Amino acid sequence: MTYRPKLIATDLDGTIVQHSGVITDRTKAAFDSANNLGIEIFFVTGRPPRWMPEIKATFDYGKAICGNGAMLWDLHEEKVLESWLIPVDAQIQTVDRLRSSIPEVTFAVESHGYFHRETKYLARWDAGLDLHGVADIAEIMKEPALKLLVRSADQSLSSDEMLEIAQRDLADLVTVTHSNSHDSVLEISALGISKGSTLAKIAQRHGIGPEDAVAFGDNPNDFTMLQWAARSYAMADGHPEGFKFAKFVAAPCVEDGVAQVIEELIKLPIR
Questions:
Q1: Domain containing 101: what range?
Q2: Number of separate domains in the chain
Q3: In angstroms, rounded to a whole number, what is the distance separating the alpha carbons of residues 59 and 32?
Q4: What share of the chain is helix, strand, coil (3-state, %, to 5)?
Q5: Nearest to 108 by CA among 84, 86, 81, 78
Q6: Dihedral pair phi/psi, residue 169, rounded to 5°
Q7: Which helix (H) or strand (E) holds 215?
Q8: Beta carbons within 8 Å of 253's beta carbon, 6+ residues apart
Q9: Whole-angstrom Cα distance, residue 181 to residue 159?
Q10: Edge-to-edge strands of the sheet including 147-152?
């Protein structure tokens, strides 16, 4: 028999947050119902904490894992609980290796309190935090970082193509992923840190194993989380490789795919 889960972990953008930025009433209602039944809710995202206010405003419950597993964030008290950051030497080695294998790359550094970029790095969301940039990102690599962002300056390589190269060249140094197949950008975390690794660690502290967990996601940065949970759902409109890592498929985000699944899960009996 299939039982009601004890934990639901979900990605945000493209999974429960539509590309227009909307979280629908149906999706909110489904999570409200799960929370009211005592199911642990985890919002597991590549976003830094400063991008979380809309999530806090929508949900008055839940735990947040930010930066692709690099930070456990108290969503409601707005404070860092734990973090697993990239050491400075690993940041510098990452830059050196990638400049050799992908010469057209540019970099940005993401941390809890700041965002810095190279002048040629075209920021999509955080440009206002660093209006001028620096010629060489190594100039400002002075402390551990939440994430490194790597962009193909001339857009000549897709995120998937860049990922293949970077995973080959950086496997012993950092964790590399991406969250947008339609762009040319990579997201880099400390070695061994991912959504799946941090979710597993925190779930274990709550006495919850993968057999009692459900996870939802749409892109490569979600794949470790989809692998970990016994019941995991790749979004039908997500990355084409998602189906290899998830056990099931949810309807597209624009059709409230996550809500559709949760509405059925909460009808199940308790183990």
A1: 88-190
A2: 2
A3: 8
A4: 35, 25, 40
A5: 86
A6: -90, -15
A7: strand 213-217
A8: 14, 15, 16, 17, 18, 19, 218, 235, 237
A9: 6
A10: 115-117, 105-110, 147-152, 185-190, 174-177
Alpha-carbon separation of residue 193 from 57, 71, 85, 225, 244 (angstroms): 28, 10, 9, 11, 21
Quick: pLDDT tens for 44-64: 999 999 899 999 999 999 999
- Ranking 97-111, 124-138, 148-162, 201-215 by mean pLDDT, the lowest is 124-138
Using CA atoms, how far apart are residues 121 and 147, in angstroms rounded to an integer?
A: 15
Among the candidates 190, 219, 239, a domain finishes at 190
Instruction: Collapse the DSSP code of 88 into the 3-class scheme (helix H, G, I; strand E, B; otherwise coil) and give the result.
Output: helix
- Nearest CA to 110 out of 86, 82, 134 is that of 86
Which of 149, 84, 90, 89 has its CA nearest to residue 114? 149
Our CA dihedral for 144, 50, 223, 269, rounded to 10 degrees, sits at 130
Which secondary structure element, helix H or strand E, spans residue 23, and what is its range?
A: none
Is 111 among the domain residues? yes
Query: Same domain, yes or no, for 173 and 251?
Result: no
CATH number at residue 252: 3.40.50.1000
pLDDT band (50, 70, 90) for residue 1: low
Angle at the Cα of 200 from the Cα atoms of 51 and 114, rounded to 5 degrees: 25
